[in-house]
Fold these 2 entries.
Entry 1:
Amino acid sequence: MTTQSSEAMNEQFDRRTLDWYIDKLVEVIVFISGISAIIFVIGIFVFVTMEGMGFLFDSFSFSEFFGSEYWEPSDEDAPEYGILALIAGTASVTGLAMLIAIPFSLGTAIYIAEFSTGKTREYLKVLVELLAAIPSVVWGFIGLTIMNPLIIELFDVPVGLTVLNAGIILGLMAAPIMTSIAEDALKAVPDRYREAAEALGATRWQVIYKTVLPAAKNGLLGAILLGVGRGFGETMAVLMATGHAVNIPGSVFDSVRALTATIAAELGETAVGSEHYQVLFTIGIFLFLITFVINLTADLIVRGIKNQ
Amino acid sequence: MSVEAMPVENLFTESQLNVKNKKIQSLYRVLFLLMTLLLILPVLIILGTLIVKGGSMISIDFLFTDPVNGMTEGGVFPALLGTVFLVSLALLISVPLGIAAAIYLSEYASENWFTRAINLAIINLAGVPSIVHALFGVGAFVMFFGFGTSILAASLTLAIMTLPVVIVSTRESLQAVPHAFREACWNMGATRWQTIRRVVLPNAVSGILTGVILEVSRTTGETAPIMFTGAVFFLPFLPQGVFDQTMALSLHLFVVTTQVPNVPEQLPYAVALVLIGMVLLMNSISIAFRMYLRSKKKW
Amino acid sequence: MVETMLESKSEGKSETASTAEQKKVKLDISHLTVSYGNDAAISDVNFKIFENEIFGIIGPANAGKTSFLKALNLMNTFDANMKVEGKILFNDRDIHQLKNVYALRSRIGVVFPLPVGLPMTIYENVALSPRLRGIKDKATLDEIVQRCLQRSALWDEVKDRLDSLGSLLSGGQQQRLTIARALSQEPELLILDEFSIAVDPVTTMRIEEVLKELKNEMTIILVTNLVQQARRLADRTAFFLEGKCIETGDTEALFNGQVENSKTTDYIEGRFG
């Protein structure tokens, strides 16, 4: 019996079945899908550059583009494309947002990871997750309709669509993501660190301050960087809550205009292929490169702790 | 204070230093709790305000009638339907692609520079600003591939933007299936694909579904990527195919808030409430589903 | 190719002339080395296994027993880190030259030290391999499932709940389920890797009885850290130590002290390991 089946089997060894070919086919398909992410990232860079190329190679001047605070694309005689004020707008809003989001997200992450337990922890995490789910256009709407009159009344200022307004909104938007990444970083610190410190008689806060936070340092830094990247790239909320005025802000009560919001507001009005259109794509390249560097750095830092 | 000088029973009570440390601890505890509450409070305030100000306008009628009188009256039906179209088509593209990519990363890829490059690309794809995705959509789908501003171009842009969500959540679900199951299956002569189809996927499918629902929620709220690729402020008719333009709920909120004069105060609140209601509903389903899964162990 | 086949056949005959002249060589292993990165798990292993015998492999932990089994089943194709050198002939065929390795694996049943009940119903666990082979007929599947579960001494305990999850059975039951699954492959070669670790003594004895019967239908490799189990079951036994095969021989002969290397006796008598 065995001899018979042995011979039959020896034939099977040389016959590639349908399943063998399906397996190879699937391997090819999933491989192509796997590299699609790389293709898309390259594609984004290539296509955005392609549309902005005309300006970039003909009339692009580094010192004017980054050094001038005059953004006057609709001046028919001598349009000027300086993004300094736009950079200042983005930077001031993101900066204020981080001032708010960093302490709040770290504090919340510490509370969730180190102080809360069981059901409370679950509920808090769900609420933070829901906070992260609110769409950016809804945040912009809130800035426009709720925050705006609130700021005017509280601080007795003429306009409420300001760095302050957008900064708070953006801070609340970035905080949930930063919280969950920071919480992951804290959770990644092995419990034996805590146990060792507690065995020496340290209180919970001493354990956190002296042991957990230093050990989770890189992950927390990564969380902050990702928050910065998020703030930099946010579009709808800053479009609606900043006041959209080209301006280098002197205080948090000034209106500003962000890089992203400028593209969103003006792309619809420009003729395809015009210089203005190309400049907007050039800003897009700039945004892409900045966020690329921020994400790369954050990844290197976070991965650094995993490898240790 | 030396030990000898203390009465015996005091040995077991706390020293002054300890009392001070405990105080510091509870101080910080309260501080962090306050921060947590301050972070969460806005969600509740926002939801409350939206419901108070816009709730009275919400009705079946509001959901299923067209906006009239320069969008100052009527409902949100074309925008709602447009969002459903955009999100469905985006899912049709990103879910198969994302699952296949996750299968590659979880089941085929080995730890090397190439896999790291893919992971890095995924992180970057998730981190690229939404407005840059919009520019990409314009450059690639609207112009280069000649789809024009259409549902197809907008959905493709949305699909690529939310692809990382599908990949990351699917990869996590696949990796949650213990390796021993795969080895057992391989040892029986199953091909990699047979193993994935018969053992890995059936046990990861609910986790994958959780991620997909989350993606629906994200896609529903996106505005910037569809602004110039397929969604328009107003359309007097419903889209007839994937090459038509469409209205969308998220853009509609932007429009009635900033672009249309003489809108009754309630209307934007009601639109915002419908949008956030859809998003939070999807999110809650996803979270509830995840919790249910966690309680139901299969091994 | 033809040359090596002839060579291995003639070698096989001359070496086993005393034990069983009519026996066919099932597995012929020569110069087998398995390494992970720079660490060799086993190096230069040579021996033959005959059809319808129980071949025992004994040795302390980290002797390379499991790596040896993995190499037999070509698990290196799933593990980029695992490197296999040397030759393994299965029915006189070099397994590294096969066009369809899945056909080879489907004829080799493997039972792991830790039982793995797949997260599907008990029925599906056993019906999986027949299904992979393309059997769809319900009656045939029913028959295979019942036969395999009966042979692995699990049928009576689970016959009323074949639709409950195989991964939630107790350890001992899962191990018998794993054996039933291996049998459902209708294997020519059955490999058991320390199967009794997760099983109680009574069940172990029942499985051992089953193995004695199965020997008439297939070749069995029994890796065990219980030397007495090898003595009870194995016709011939190999002793592995620190990645090397120290010696192979008739089980009784080895246990009676007819050894080439005194370490074998030391291990059998429990002086180390």
Entry 2:
Amino acid sequence: MGSKYDVLVIGGGNAALCAAIAARRGGASVLVLEGAPKFYRGGNTRHTRNMRCAHDAATEILTGPYTEEEFWEDLLRVTGGQTDEVLARHMIRESKDILNWIVEQGVRWQPSLGGTLSLGRTNSFFLGGGRAMLNALYLTAEQLGVEVEYDAEVIDLVIEHGMFLAARLKRPVNGEIEIRATSLVAAAGGFEANIEWLKQYWGEAADNFLIRGTPYNRGWILKMLLDKGVQEVGDPTQCHAVAIDARAPKFDGGIITRHDSVVFGIVVNKHAQRFYDEGEDIWPKRYAIWGRLVAAQPDQIAYIIFDSTVVTSFMPTLFPPIAGQTVTELAAKLDLDPAALEKTITEFNAAVRPGTFDHTILDDCRTEGITPQKTHWARRIATPPYLAYPVRPGITFTYLGTRVNKEARMLMADGRPSANMFAAGEIMAGNVLGKGYAAGMGMTIGSVFGRIAGREAAKHARN
Amino acid sequence: MHATRILDEADRLMTVCNSCRYCEGLCAVFPAMEMRRAFSDGDLNYLANLCHGCGACYVDCQFSPPHEFNVNVPKTLAIVRAESYAAYAWPQALSGTFARNGLVISIIAALSMAVFILGFAIWNDRSVLFGVHTGPGAFYRLMPHNAMAALFSAALLYAILALVLSVRAFWRDIGPPIGGRADGGSIFQAIRDAGELRYLHGGGVGCYNEDDKPTDRRKLYHHLTFYGFLLCFAATSVATLYHYVLGREAPYPWWDLPVVLGTLGGIGLIIGPIGLFAAKMRRDPALLDESRYGMDVGFIAMLFLTGLTGMALLLLRETSAMGPLLALHLGAVFALFITMPYGKFVHGIYRFAALVRYAQERRSEASA
């Protein structure tokens, strides 16, 4: 038997810590159970760098206003309308105050980082990145008296008629114990690191997926809640995927394995064939479609091919490009059919029409007479060395979650709100974000609903 | 490939960091890195000397150990930095002194003090060495002023010569600034940045220790030490002017400018090094180049010894202990001077040069 807490928070990222701090400030005793070891604490928050909050005027670090209405329009656009308007508008309104509240919790802002000028007005960047943000939140939580346990593997939740009673915890040394609490905040993320679960929707292809975050985002808490009658939200088959370097580690390669060079070259599959318009839209607007596109190719692998003229057009990369003095030499290094790659590049080069290159606008450099077309930024690939990055789908997060109301209170399958169970962060992001993504929204969902969940959980516990 | 394995490692890390850039707001190292896509030996030595070792980028990094990317910028740059001191040292024959610096410094300090004591004992009558001397010229009954001035000027001039030639080698190796701008404003900017230790701040919260709770103590104690050192130097300079311009001989009364400056400086040189040593003990070993422990502590100890013997001399100068204390103090100062170009003292000179280069690059970037 363990002791009893007012509020039990399961998870250890931005949403969990905001909930823990808000609950503690609301007078509750709080225990945080983080499934990962201390170094890997925080789930996907480790790899974030900014948060999107509405604001009516420029701030010290934001270059101009970003109104609630504009935020809402952006959300509507990226989700294609798959959002809960009441919840989303509530979140956007609350996000305004988060800009200050999060600073009161020790997090520090900085102007947008180099190479992210397009976000300078809308997104506030964490000084030192997501792990720095986490460090600040943990320090504040601990100073307030929040208890934190790492490597905390929750093996079961005791829930009766939509009422949380206790969590069963398996400890590495002392065996199983039961922890009772008056309220539960579930903020344990999605299931992107659970390859077996991904395979239910993607089949064997999921074995070739790389997971951008830690191996600890396994979705067990989400699964337990859904199994015990919480209403689900979001498309279970969908995940946010970008093209990342195929040489990246299986887990936790983070942001540095990404490639933003697609628009400067062509992308071919393992048969050295092009399969999609590389110049469809301005980067990073189309950044997130390439994970899905590569996942649909044989063996879930593709190669961004370009030449030496564009090497300095994008950010330096973690892994150097693979180089060949001739197309044949490059093909050999990539294990592609040299004749097929030669043919693809020759045909592409022949189809390139003259134009004025400008990567900041949808320029007039395009191809004619090949399928698929490259509709912008098409330039001949003809100056050796020829270069390539191998890419695979990099899974960022999943959309399946628990349905909640404006109080971040979970709704049961029959539509009734749970008496004492709240959810925040990626585990309920699907309420607001039915599909798509725009930079910094995950952190907005985490902080806003984390704060609400913590406040409401403490209120319930005190009554 | 670079000249050493640690430079290869620094290159690997800067490649990782340049594809991430989350730390760009923490200090000067990362913005300077972002101006480059490839890193020569000189570039890496420049970045290493720009690093103040606050540790913020280590605790903020999602890829620091135990992550397989194994990113430890503070430790790697600390090793590169220390190796750069040896690589640029003049004359090169003495570059080996950096390797076992703590031992070298202790031996030189002990020898120097012993020689002064022995020298006083040989040149002076026993009654003079242990006698009570007061009034103007009291010190010079143990060692003639001109001999003292000649000896210490020679030591200081040698130190300055060796430092200038070493830093010149560094300056040449790091190449022209990105943007090509070199103006006086950059030097003033660097003086401000160094004077306030702008980048020893963990991005604003202080330095990181073992317990996740940053503090500003290293900055405070470094200020006490550095400004203490400058005040002591000012005290000596004023006293020299008194001697040659006004014809007034030391010792001076407690309220006189050289003594006031020296006393304030001495207090700084006692408290500062103790604080720096204590702060060093509390630092996370993962951030430090532990093989250079001797070099760091050797220099801290030399400063402390200089401050301590100076203050003791001030307090006891009217007693029979004055003779031996003067010998100890002169020994400490002499050792401090001649070991300056071959110990931790050089960190300030190289870092200042790196800050000047950084100011030049930032100003070119801003005007571009």
